[in-house]
Specification:
Blueprint lengths: L1 H26 L9 E11 L5 E12 L6 E3 L6 E4 L3 E4 L6 E3 L4 E3 L5 E3 L23 E2 L4 E4 L2 E5 L2 E3 L7 E4 L2 E3 L5 E2 L4 E4 L1 E3 L5 H39 L1
Length: 239
């Protein structure tokens, strides 16, 4: 009877984790460049004292859906979307971070920065600086930024051998120990940003499925407890 309870509890824990992931996806359905995540599970075998193999379910990790979200036009000449696999390089106190959120602006020092003020780097690892003479901003498909005063630099767009190893750093940014390389197959699109790739209909369907599975499992636990109480009642009656 205990084995049944342990298996049921492991399933309940896994379902709770899965529900948290789905809820987080739904909460970020309108977050620029957000990538939906999905729970990975694996079987965990335990041998009991009587030699019986018992199978538990264990949440192993998360997988990230790296497909591109819809590109939305903003009319802002400093906004840039990436068409294809790639990430912008952003400076942070702990080292470079990477993002597909190209909602950029110019700060008081004339530097191209993200919406939260982090410096966006060019392909030489330097900030991109605008002056008062830099008007009519143009961003080419290869990331080159130019104005009426000339070329300012080229956005550093990079990729990685395994995008699943990127770790979330907040603000739609990632960190990784992998060495970046130029994303030659990607291109940049001016005046647009990438939306979230979350499909709200699929996520709501998953939420309903998980809720039903959780309730069914809770009912199973209740039935097990009822059986144990009935067994104890009968034993007490015999004694």
């Amino acid at each position: 009877m205990q084995n049944s309870e342990y298996i049921s509890l492991s399933l309940q824990t896994a379902l709770r984790v899965q529900m948290d992931v789905v809820a987080n996806n739904l909460a970020n359905m309108n977050t620029t460049a957000y990538k939906a995540e999905h729970t990975l599970f694996k079987e965990y075998m335990v041998q009991t004292e009587d030699g019986e193999d018992v199978s538990f379910v264990q949440d192993w990790g998360l997988s990230r859906d790296t497909t591109a979200g819809k590109l939305d036009s903003t009319g802002n000449p400093l906004d840039v979307a990436i068409n294809g696999d790639g990430y912008f390089v952003v400076e942070s106190p702990d080292g470079n971070e990477y993002t597909r959120n190209g909602h950029f602006r110019v700060d008081d020092a004339g530097q191209l920065v993200t919406s939260d003020g982090s410096v966006v780097l060019d392909d030489s690892g330097q900030p991109i600086v605008f002056t008062e003479f830099d008007t009519n901003v143009k961003i080419a498909g290869d990331g080159t930024i130019s104005t009426d005063a000339g070329v300012l630099g080229r956005l550093d767009v990079v990729n990685f051998d395994n995008q699943q190893l990127l770790k979330k750093a907040g603000n739609s940014r990632y960190t990784t120990d992998q060495a970046p390389f130029p994303a030659t197959a990607a291109s940049t699109v001016q005046g647009m940003v990438e939306g979230s790739n979350v499909n709200p209909i699929l996520e709501m369907t998953d939420m309903i499925r998980i809720s039903r599975a959780y309730q069914a499992n809770a009912n199973l636990q209740s039935n097990i407890n009822d059986s144990q109480r009935e067994m104890l009642r009968r034993i007490a009656t015999v004694i």
